Amino acid sequence: MIYSSSQIKVRYAETDKMNVVYHSNYLVWFDIARTQMLEEIGLPYRDLEADGYFIPVLTANLEYLRSARFDDILDVQLRVMEKPRVRMRFEYEIKRANELIAIGATTHGFIDIRGNAQRPPKNFLQKINEIWPPKQSTTKPA
Amino acid sequence: MIYSSSQIKVRYAETDKMNVVYHSNYLVWFDIARTQMLEEIGLPYRDLEADGYFIPVLTANLEYLRSARFDDILDVQLRVMEKPRVRMRFEYEIKRANELIAIGATTHGFIDIRGNAQRPPKNFLQKINEIWPPKQSTTKPA
Amino acid sequence: MIYSSSQIKVRYAETDKMNVVYHSNYLVWFDIARTQMLEEIGLPYRDLEADGYFIPVLTANLEYLRSARFDDILDVQLRVMEKPRVRMRFEYEIKRANELIAIGATTHGFIDIRGNAQRPPKNFLQKINEIWPPKQSTTKPA
Amino acid sequence: MIYSSSQIKVRYAETDKMNVVYHSNYLVWFDIARTQMLEEIGLPYRDLEADGYFIPVLTANLEYLRSARFDDILDVQLRVMEKPRVRMRFEYEIKRANELIAIGATTHGFIDIRGNAQRPPKNFLQKINEIWPPKQSTTKPA
To answer: In chain A, which residue's Cα lies nearest the Cα of C23?
Structure first.
């Protein structure tokens, strides 16, 4: 499993006239959490893009449980539970202290600059294999 | 069923360095479609809020199928398939001419200014009952 | 002079907890007005970029006179008063019916993809010379 | 003088297809710097609003000198050079290490929830008078 925790301080620009955070901003915070996680495991997203890889969002799901408000300090907890292969799945919990504000998940693929699907780059696979070691084929001795 | 179609012209501010629309903007477009739909059925959202009702997003699901790009003219098609009761479900298709760009769904509830769950306002229920007439109890003539 | 008028309907996402439009969105609306103006004079910005030219903002000035609110229909009036040369200056008035909401101005230059300053492209200069004809050198007859 | 320095890490959502930060985001960063400064001098903006005061932007000026890019770590330096009275003026420098990215200024007033101009609240004036002590009337001894 990969786990990462990112702190967000809610910006005035992120609020709306309902006096809470406008709901699309949660996707921006999920993105910040992914960027930080990739940095933490030694694969900065800016380097992946410099190498010609992009990781667009394929699907996103959000469940809004409590309102987030201006100046709140939030913790965006990201988990990768399954070994990424051609697709990757990230799961999120947004918390304000012990309160659960929202949960969500996004799935992603790798593409090149032209938008064509790509296999993940080697340094990415290598890093993933360190975290989820490939299963050894168990061979019985004769 | 309620159906509404809203036209969006992609803004430069909505693009990102991947040269496509940043994915959180789709939620903003869904919101525009809801606002237009409510206007079309005679229940402008600004009036609902003036009456003390808010319709926050409870869940959101998005599937990104093709990239949207700067200056694209998109059609956000909104459908309400089931009669709204305490909760409402909106379904969306974003199209560029005949190409399907994204699909999604959001669910919503009614709250008051304090954030407490509310039953929908009377004028809303009346309008919904015009669109989905309540089933008559069938009484046999004697 | 070039004049262009663009209609904006204020989005819920553009409001903030002060119940008015968050002030940075006015720059986005100015941008929409520039895009529409370039389209109207036959030089769509997407084509300029496809030809390798970009028109970044060098300076921006804004004066906020009245609040804009959710669902307002606004008119963004853009004027180019002086013939663009290496730099261009755009002036803006945002109106809600007869009320003046904000005024502003932005200046811009041309750059290439690497960020180096460029002279405006030929088709741009040609169009500008149609609008502001170059002064004829007055030659006295012998 | 009041001085405050806020760190910003550029978000992917803040970039545009020109591969740089979209220019309206600088106003959001200025806002973050103001919020942090008010917090630092003991007058959190959320408390000012809770007391019924709002500090809308009246004017904004920006000069864009260099591009900011995804994942850049920027320092937003805010200065209040003149003692705030009915109006306040904030000056900004955005730096990436030693490079100056942008400069700007905003002016602000105090209003109440109805949008009517207000004198600054007492706790605000008190704090300002600590920073800029009122000039003593010099009285000669007899």
So the answer is: A13
